[in-house]
Write a structure and sequence with these properties.
Elements: E1 2-6, H1 13-24, E2 28-30, H2 31-41, H3 44-54, H4 61-72, E3 81-84, H5 90-102, E4 109-114, H6 117-125, E5 127-130, E6 136-138, E7 157-158, H7 165-179, H8 181-188, E8 192-196, H9 201-214
Parallel strand pairs: 1-3, 1-4, 2-3, 4-8
Antiparallel strand pairs: 5-6, 5-7
Length: 215
């Protein structure tokens, strides 16, 4: 199966991608993993990407696209893959289609994790991170035994800038502008399947697997 996972920040894409890829016996291909592998491996693409990142600039699509193309050409992705974090916009989606055409393959399904924006804000703004060990807890869903103190190491819990409400709402705005049009693009292609991403991790996984296997 060749699949793409889309959804707003806080929809649980990373968690579900890991579980679904394992259940379907296909590799999870995330842009974060690809970037880290190229940068740490010192590849030519990694060096180019690092130069942009060191300046605080966004890595251009052409570099990201080339990294994805190389990753999808690897042996473990020949029988299928689950893409997480790519494509992020319609231009990248068109590039992915061309990429797969060149490889004699095609995308099977795009799974959209749908979640209410207020739920996203609640999920992300409640996260607290330990300054000492990096453990993440949640003021509602996984409250620390002692307020402000990490359950794991006793370090101080704090709210990262990324988890502040105003930052989250900005990220949602960016998602609506750039990534949400992907939903329409893939719906027009007849490849889109949407599930509700609320409830427990297990419930969402069950819905996702049912949707993917029914497609």
């Amino acid at each position: 199966m060749r699949a793409v996972l889309v959804g707003p920040p806080g929809a649980g894409k990373g968690t579900q991608a890991q579980i679904l890829a394992s259940e379907l016996s296909i590799p999870k291909v995330s842009t974060g993993d690809i970037f880290r592998a190229n940068v740490s491996g010192g590849t030519e693409l990694g060096k180019r990407a690092k130069a942009y990142m060191d300046r605080g600039d966004l890595v251009p699509d052409e570099v990201t696209n080339a990294m994805v193309r190389d990753r999808l050409a690897e042996d473990d992705a020949q029988g299928g893959f689950l893409l997480d974090g790519f494509p992020r916009n319609v231009a990248q989606a068109e590039t992915l289609n061309k990429m797969l055409d060149d490889m004699g393959r095609r995308l099977d399904v795009v799974l959209e994790l749908k979640v209410d924006e207020e739920e996203v804000v609640k999920r992300l703004s409640g996260r607290r991170t330990c300054r000492n060990c990096g453990h993440v807890q949640h003021v509602v869903f996984d409250p620390p035994k002692t307020e402000g103190v990490c359950d794991v190491c006793g370090g101080e819990l704090f709210q990262r800038d990324d988890d502040r409400e105003e930052t989250i709402r900005h990220r949602l705005d960016v998602y609506r502008e750039q990534t949400a049009p992907l939903v329409s693009f893939y719906a027009d292609e007849g490849r889109l399947v949407t599930i509700e991403a609320t409830g427990s991790v297990e419930e969402v996984t069950e819905r996702a697997l049912a949707a993917l296997r029914a497609d």
